[in-house]
Amino acid sequence: MPHHEPLWSDSVYPLTAYLIALTGSSLGLSCARRVQLMGHVRGRGWLTGGAFSLGTGIWGMHFVAMLGYRSSDAGIRYDPVLTLLSWAVAVTFVGIGMLLVSRHTTRRSLLFSGLLAGAGIAAMHYLGMAALRMSGRRVFEGGTVALSVVIAVVAATAALWATLRLTSRTARFAASLVMAFAISGMHYTGMMSMTSAGAAGAERAGGLSPISVVVPLTIGLTFIVFVVSFAVLMNPVGDLARELARQQVAPAQAGN
């Protein structure tokens, strides 16, 4: 049977995918900073916004990047259930990681949260790959798969560390740039691990076309970015910190 390596078209898809990952990372870290400041109970709205922003950004990066995927099988389609499940996994695991690190700021908690969130990112990627409907048998090289998982875990841990340690807006944006690069690196490392073996032109089952996945993804991501960005701009970290300080001082003054 012939063995087909994946090919990639022009650079517009990787660049667009990186910008999506950067947007999700930037908003996710901004929300995570507010969760850390307010606590996981009072900051549950920020926790939700951060999980949706970062999780959807990672998921969107994957499927936009996949628009550039080329193989001898020209009719790639996606299983709708696995595609949706991959999004749910990304949002859920990122959210759990953010929740855990906001409750316990120890090094052990950071490492565990990063491991959990990174595992979710990797699971999203490989569920997205499992959603591919294409002729031939997919083969994954174990060492490269393991490397992609390590990259995902390191990226998630670094992002959560940045949430705890970096307070300036410039530092968090720099962390977002690095995280988006790591997310993209994880995706393309994971893609390097896969080859397809089989006869081109074999009959394929139905499913979603790449465009039918990306169009609603773009609409949904745009909505999330608009809502979360508006909330972030209307609630600067400095204002929230001052408000919390006033709320803590008021009961003490009343007691006196």
UniProtKB/TrEMBL annotation:
Report keywords, A-Z.
Membrane, Transmembrane, Transmembrane helix
Question: Transmembrane residues, as ranges?
Answer: 12-32, 44-69, 81-101, 110-132, 144-164, 171-191, 211-233
Tell me the Pfam families matching this sequence: MHYT
Question: Residue ranges of the MHYT domain?
Answer: 9-197
**Keyword Transcription regulation applies:** no
Q: Which PROSITE patterns match?
A: MHYT
Could you state one GO cellular component term attached to this entry? membrane
Protein name per the record: MHYT domain-containing protein, NO-binding membrane sensor
Record PANTHER family = DOMAIN SIGNALLING PROTEIN, PUTATIVE (AFU_ORTHOLOGUE AFUA_5G11310)-RELATED
Keyword check for Transmembrane helix:
yes
Native species of this protein?
A: Actinacidiphila bryophytorum
The highest taxon in the source lineage is Bacteria
Question: Which lineage is the organism of this entry classified under, starting from the top rank?
Answer: Bacteria, Bacillati, Actinomycetota, Actinomycetes, Kitasatosporales
